[in-house]
Amino acid sequence: MRVHVGSDHAGLELKDHLVGWLRDHGYEPVDHGPFVYDALDDYPVFCLRAAEGVAAERAAGQDSLGVVVGGSGNGEQMAANKVRGVRSALVWSEETAALAREHNDATVVSVGGRMHSLEDMTRFVEVFLTTDFSGDERHVRRIAQLAAYESTGQLPPLPDSARDA
Question: For the chain, which domains are there?
Answer without folding.
Answer: 2-151 (3.40.1400.10)
